[in-house]
């Protein structure tokens, strides 16, 4: 009897560690597009503009485009801006955009299309941008 009680207690303890709660939000995928001015590329016709995009990131909470764009702007100011490089057209509508999709494949295809539409213009990818759900 003692062995049975001990076994049941052990099973209960072990299963309590393995059961985890999951939120009902499905993962979504996003990337952000923007334009920056890089003084190293200043030319008469192009003015040093570079099309930038983040990689596709996972969004595991229910936040919207504005929140993702805000996190991107903070990331850019902290990690990407230099003396020669800064976001272009700050405050202009439609320059900084967050794109959110339900599947990773949709997000990758959309990002690829966005890059292809920019043709031979200068492009740069921001690799270390992540979305937090705080």
Task: Give an overview in words.
This protein is α+β, with helices and mostly antiparallel strands and 134 residues long. The N and C termini lie far apart (49 Å). Strands 1, 2, 3, 4, 5 and 6 form a six-stranded mixed β-sheet that branches. Helices cover 35% and strands 24% of the residues.
Keywords:
134 residues, alpha+beta, 6-stranded mixed β-sheet, 3 helices, 35% helix
Quick summary of this structure?
This protein has three helices and six strands.
Strand content: 15-25%
C-alpha Rg, in Å? Answer: 22 Å
Shape: elongated
Number of strand segments: 6
- What's the mean pLDDT score? 86
Distance between the amino and carboxyl termini: 49 Å
Question: Share of helix among residues?
Answer: 25-40%
Number of helices: 3
How do the SSEs run, as a string of H and E?
HEEEHEEHE
- Any low-confidence stretches, pLDDT <50, length ≥5? 19-24
Largest sheet: 6 strands, mixed
Structural class: alpha+beta
